[in-house]
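During the reporting period the student researcher (J.K.) took over the structure-prediction task from the postdoctoral fellow and processed the backlog of single-chain submissions. One of the processed entries is reproduced below for the supervisory committee.
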Amino acid sequence: MSGKEQQALRDALEAEYAAVYAYGLIAAHSSPELRRTVNEHTAAHRARRDGTVDLLTGDGAAAPPPEPAYTVPVEVTDPASAARLAVVVETDTAVAWRAVIEHAGTELIRRTGLEALTESAGRRAVWQAAAGITPATTAFPGQP
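J.K. obtained the following structure tokens:
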């Protein structure tokens, strides 16, 4: 794995760590109707986090540990602000995974990045719809 590929994966891992952290806030403030969605999205980010750690360490690279806490760019006080934070989280992870695709040197890393980008874009669409943002999707997800 090249240095750029490893760094892109480390950056994506950092985005996944931040996503798992943020989903704790999202869970605390989301509406009961979205509880199942929050749980599914949290589980997806945890699985992607763990898979990314495995990719890095399986190649002999160091996987950075998570930070003790993360700054969230949205003050979360109610279901509407929780949905807005979820949109930001999914946008950030999409950007990180798009960078993995751009720096991928192997089919495995390219496929992993594409799957993660696609999943983030799908989750973002769910949250944009929940937040009343239209359109719920974007043509090219993951563009910074």
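The committee noted the following: The CA atoms of residues 24 and 42 lie 8 Å apart.
J.K. will present the remaining backlog at the next meeting.
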